[in-house]
């Protein structure tokens, strides 16, 4: 997983001057952290917490419609 993430990072930012890279401190193992730190030098790893979860708290109208449709389908499976 770490290797794939680093390949993706490298393909997105091949020549970018990145000084810091955020990582989810609650979910990244120490071995993954050290692999990232080594591979991403000289960028500094910046610990963040709940960044993705906080973004996911907000839904647009399309997301809400999809969620409602899924709930409706689930309800329909239990109607006899």
Question: Can you describe this structure?
Answer:
- With 80 residues, the protein is α+β, with helices and mostly antiparallel strands.
- The protein is 55% helix and 12% strand.
- The protein is built from four helices and two strands.
- It has helices spanning 2-12, 30-39, 51-56, 61-77; strands at residues 20-24, 44-48.
- The chain has a two-stranded parallel ribbon.
- The longest helix is centred in the C-terminal third of the chain and has 17 residues, at 61-77.
- The chain is elongated and about 60 Å long.
- The termini are far apart.
Write the layout of secondary structure elements.
Blueprint: H1 2-12, E1 20-24, H2 30-39, E2 44-48, H3 51-56, H4 61-77
Parallel strand pairs: 1-2
Please compute the radius of gyration using only Cα atoms. 19 Å
Strand content: 5-15%
Number of strands: 2
Largest sheet: 2 strands, parallel
Shape category: elongated
In what order do the strands lie side by side in the largest sheet? 1-2
Number of helices: 4
Distance between the termini: 44 Å
Mean pLDDT: 82
Low-confidence stretches: none
Secondary structure class reads alpha+beta
Q: What proportion of the residues is helical, as a percent range?
A: 55-70%
Q: What string, H for helix and E for strand, traces the elements in order?
A: HEHEHH
In short:
The chain is of the alpha+beta class and 80 residues long. It has helices spanning 2-12, 30-39, 51-56, 61-77; strands at residues 20-24, 44-48.
How would you describe this structure in keywords?
about 80 residues, alpha+beta, 4 helices, about 55% helix
């Amino acid at each position: 997983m770490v290797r794939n993430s680093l390949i993706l990072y490298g393909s997105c930012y091949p020549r970018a001057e990145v000084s810091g890279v955020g990582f989810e401190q609650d979910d990244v193992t120490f071995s993954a952290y050290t692999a990232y730190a080594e591979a991403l030098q000289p960028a500094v790893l910046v610990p963040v917490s709940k960044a993705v979860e906080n973004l996911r708290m907000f839904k647009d109208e399309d997301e809400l419609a999809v969620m409602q449709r899924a709930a409706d389908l689930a309800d329909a499976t239990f109607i006899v």
